[in-house]
Design brief:
The structure is a single chain. The chain is α+β, with helices and mostly antiparallel strands. It has a domain at 58-188. Helices cover 28% and strands 37% of the residues. It contains 1 helix and 10 strands, in the order αββββββββββ. It has one helix spanning 7-60; strands at 62-63, 79-81, 86-93, 105-113, 116-123, 126-137, 140-150, 153-155, 172-179, 182-188. The strands form 2 sheets. Strands 1, 2, 3, 4, 5 and 6 form a 6-stranded antiparallel β-sheet that branches. Strands 8-7-9-10 form a 4-stranded antiparallel β-sheet, covered by helices on one side. The longest helix is centred in the first third of the chain and has 54 residues, at 7-60. The chain is elongated and about 105 Å long. The mean pLDDT is 87.
Length: 192
């Protein structure tokens, strides 16, 4: 009697090894795909939270500084908001700017451009000198922004058309938008 494996036994062993390899590969590729999806989701959630937190921080640090246009004419307002490309404009005390030779007051401009939320900071009294510009969020759909002193009475522009001069901030700023088919409703405010 000879010791060893028959050809049939070797083929069965190879078939079993191949099936185990195919199942392992499928499991590992699914695991890698799932990890990439989770990492992307965490990254997107982190960017979203950072952007909303930065907007809230800017609003908390806002000061009633009368805005001027690009020709240095007084606009007689401390805050301008609309549903156009330029959605928010106001002056804030920028605590992250450590330049000691210049004022720490910065004009904060939030724009909705190319489906992205862009934050621009300029000098408070000269919008032509850009200090920084950063795209905070991308892939934003159906952005609507509303302003008012009551959640029951919100307008799409601030100050309204009938207001010539306004040295106040709205009590509430409400943003409605979608990112990757998820709907968001953010209620923020100056609470002065």
């Amino acid at each position: 009697m000879k010791n060893g494996f028959t050809l049939l036994e070797v083929l069965i062993a190879l078939l079993a090894a191949a099936l185990i390899s195919i199942m392992s590969f499928d499991f590992l590729s699914n695991t890698i795909f799932l990890k990439e999806r989770i990492d992307n989701s965490i990254s997107n959630n982190s960017k979203h939270s950072k952007a909303i937190h930065l907007m809230r921080l800017d609003m908390i640090q806002a000061i009633p500084f009368e805005l001027k246009d690009q020709n240095f004419n007084n606009l007689n307002n401390v805050f301008i908001g609309s549903n156009e490309e330029r959605i928010l404009t106001f002056v804030s005390l920028n605590s992250s700017d450590t330049a000691s030779s210049n004022s720490m007051l910065r004009r904060i401009i939030y724009r909705y451009r190319d489906k992205g939320l862009v934050r621009t900071t300029t000098l408070a009294n000269n919008e032509n000198i850009i200090v920084s510009e950063e795209t905070l969020l991308t892939d934003i759909e159906n952005l609507q922004i509303y302003f008012g002193d009551s959640l029951d009475d919100l307008n799409s522009n601030y100050p309204g058309l009938n207001v010539v001069e306004n040295n106040a901030f709205p009590q509430f700023v409400v943003l409605n938008y979608e990112i990757n088919d998820k709907k968001f409703n953010q209620i923020m405010g100056f609470f002065r």
